[in-house]
Amino acid sequence: MLRGVFQLVTGVTRGLGGRKVRRRFPDVDEKHPKGKFFQESKQKRFGARTRRSGFLMQWSKVPNIVVPDLRDFELKPYVSEKAAKVFTPPLDSSTAKITERVTGDSTIVHSS
User: Which of 4, 28, 77, 102 has the fewest C-beta atoms lying within 10 Å of its C-beta?
Assistant: First the structure.
């Protein structure tokens, strides 16, 4: 009788399959981020997954980067006087077309 009670009590403390149930402490290191960041790149999520494996973008979470106008700015980027002069030839038409497709900037096209 006493042995049956012991087995009943240990059976309750063990989980399914006869394994011992242990309480784990929550992982607090960066390898287990709890949904705030992507594990590989540590970036915040800018939206949410939908039920059918889609992605709903939330534009309020996307950072807005404001770049000031630097046309009349007095300081220029530093370049050493000892730097070698580099000549970049103008782009040929095929390279210019590819660059225009990638960047969407048509001002790169040079006529030769």
Answer: 77
